[in-house]
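Data card: per-record layout.
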Amino acid sequence: MLYEYSEQYVNDGGVANNTILSGLQSIFPSEYGDKNSYARQYISEGGVANDTTLNGNSEQHVNGGTANGTTLYAATAWQYIHDGGIANGTKIHDGNIIVYGGGESHHTEVRGGQFSLLTGSLASGETFVSGYSEMLMEAGLTRQM
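The structure for this 145-residue chain is written out next.
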């Protein structure tokens, strides 16, 4: 299996606007076996990402930073929010959000995919879930604002 990565790091006052993350999963015979590529964005302490789009095989890690207006479009798109990370206005058309360990998700819209709120995390504002969607809660907190 051959893996290729494309990564963006946003931290220490950095700002990323209008970013598109898209990986590729292909299965074909080659001397290296199957080939996969991943696109990842890491938003850590002091970093801000605005209007990020996640397509297939992509991940956004919000770890102490802030993500505003992220949209997930594929089942293989993931947003991880933890350790003081804050996500505002995330929309899932298909994909997965996992909020855990001190992460916060505000005003989330889930139209397909999965929203997981785990121990030590917070969801506030309107959380809208419809269609083929799933919301899992494991001792996370919800607060309507």
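Known properties of this structure: The chain has a mean pLDDT of 83. Residues 2-26+33-143 form one domain.

See the next section for split statistics.
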